[in-house]
Design a protein that fits this description.
The protein is α/β, with parallel strands linked by helices and 447 residues long. The chain contains 14 helices and 15 strands. The strands form 3 sheets. Strands 4-10-9-8-7-5-6 form a 7-stranded mixed β-sheet, sandwiched between helices. Helix 4 runs antiparallel to helix 11, helix 6 crosses helix 10 and helix 8 runs parallel beside helix 9. The longest helix is centred in the last third of the chain and has 20 residues. The chain is globular. The protein starts with 5 loop residues before the first helix and ends with a helix.
Length: 447
């Protein structure tokens, strides 16, 4: 064993690193990645894997894009860092804000940049609270989000996140965060005779009325819930949500950290339903993960209230509007546009979903195959008729994940839900191979 071998590297890793979602047993036989090219990752053993989740939903333009490295290097040579606190700016940040004003929802014209999605959530909470205070409604501070929603794991963002496994070691959660049921079409049970999408949206109205409309600042929702299981809402869900938010003066904030910049086959996902948010959170795909960058787009009316506030808006990050990150983002957006990758996401996503359904939908332990654009999921169940889940002790999800890795596909699961979101540059042959691997893994683990 050499220091450069996987066992040697893992030994050094275990001695000194604490990881996100830290689990020493999980990491004992982990991967040490050395290279990435297109949709393929190569580990320290020299084994190649298809990247089934684009890193963490973010490497949309694929690995090894020299154009992005060159954009970073050029900017680093000119100006590696400067503050973006009021009184300072930089050219890449100005250009990126202008570009985003062209790409995002028409009402959104102003942008605050962060280092990632969790900071974007924190920013939205503070924008909403300060906006309502400046509008003379200081009690509007509460945030409503949804079960299975993921919005980050800083303390307030974790309190908005509706996946309970993230909570226990860090509670008590921040007060003022409320969760309503997800529209989750496979599992949401609507009252008899009602539209499931309308019924799920009306859960928001009930929560607003229970908390008191005068106390609710915002509703935070992913257009398609990603980490929670690729939960695609019913077509009538978000139009009803928009009506409810307007009725009770609640800001609608779209968390497009995963869905933004083409993942669902449109630049921004609420366009599927003709709905405009008051704010939009973004990160991940804006730089294809090559540089940590996120942000919040804000409707002009809200930004105007902050402009007229009379005193500084005391929210800040050292790396906000980082010139290198903004330069990489601009080049990445150019790649997405010039190579037609958003349209490719729509076409390849439909192809992948069709292949997965053909190969897996009839399996007795596959409850649902679902997706929107190039994000898909397979939900495995013990009983297809009743939708009963497997007992966690059986470890079905981890076993499926391990078998897929053995066969050359690296991705993540939420329990027994296998998640897929490969890079937009993934070839048709590689998509076919993903289907083949998952069919083989399902057969081997579940018969």
């Amino acid at each position: 064993m050499t220091e450069a071998s996987k066992p040697g590297l893992l030994s050094r890793d275990l001695e000194h690193l604490i990881h996100p979602l830290h689990s020493r047993p999980t990491h004992q036989d982990g991967h040490v990645w050395l290279k990435g090219r297109g949709s393929v990752l190569v580990d320290a053993d020299g084994k190649e894997y298809l990247d089934g989740l684009s890193g963490l939903w973010n490497v949309v333009a694929g690995h090894g894009r020299s154009e992005l490295a060159d954009a970073a290097a050029r900017q680093m040579r000119d100006l590696g860092y400067c503050s973006a606190y009021a009184g300072s700016s930089n050219v890449p940040a100005i250009k990126l804000a202008e570009r985003l004003a062209e790409l995002t929802y028409p009402a959104i014209r102003r942008f605050f940049f962060t280092s990632g999605g969790g900071e974007a959530s924190e920013t939205s909470f503070k924008v909403a609270r300060s906006y309502w205070k400046l509008c003379g409604q200081p009690n509007k501070t509460k945030v409503i989000s949804r079960q299975w929603g993921y919005h980050g794991v800083t303390l307030a963002a974790m309190s908005a996140t509706g996946i309970s496994g993230y909570w226990p070691l860090f509670e008590p959660r921040v007060p003022g965060f409320v969760h309503v049921p997800s529209p989750y079409p496979y599992r949401y049970e609507a009252p008899a005779g009602s539209s499931p999408g309308i019924a799920a949206a009306d859960e928001l109205e009930r929560a607003i009325l229970t908390e008191g409309p005068e106390t609710v600042a915002m509703f935070l929702a992913e257009p398609v819930q990603g980490a929670g299981g690729v939960l695609v809402p019913q077509d009538d869900y978000f139009p009803r949500v928009r009506e409810i938010c307007d009725r009770y003066d609640v800001l609608l904030v779209a968390d497009e950290v995963i869905t933004g910049f083409g993942r669902t086959g449109k630049w921004f996902a609420l366009d599927h339903w003709g709905v405009q948010p008051d704010m939009v959170q973004f990160a991940k795909a804006i730089t294809s993960g090559y540089f940590p960058l996120g942000g919040v787009g804000i409707r002009e009316e809200i930004a105007g209230v902050l402009d007229a506030g009379g005193s500084p808006w005391m929210h800040a990050y050292t790396y906000s509007a980082h010139p290198v990150g903004c330069a990489v983002a601009l080049r990445n957006l150019g790649i997405l546009e010039s190579e037609g990758l958003v349209e490719a996401s729509a076409e390849k996503g439909a192809y992948l979903l069709s292949g997965l359904r053909t190969a897996l939908a009839d399996h007795p332990h596959v409850g649902e195959v679902r997706g929107k654009g190039l994000m898909c999921a397979i939900e495995y169940v013990r009983d297809k008729d009743t939708k009963e889940e497997f007992a966690p002790a059986l470890g079905v999800g981890p076993r499926l994940g391990a078998k897929a890795r053995d066969l050359g596909l690296f991705s993540r699961l939420r329990g027994d839900v296998f998640l897929l979101a490969p890079p937009f540059t993934t070839s048709v042959r590689q998509l076919d191979r993903i289907v083949e691997i998952l069919a083989a893994a399902t057969s081997e683990v579940l018969g």
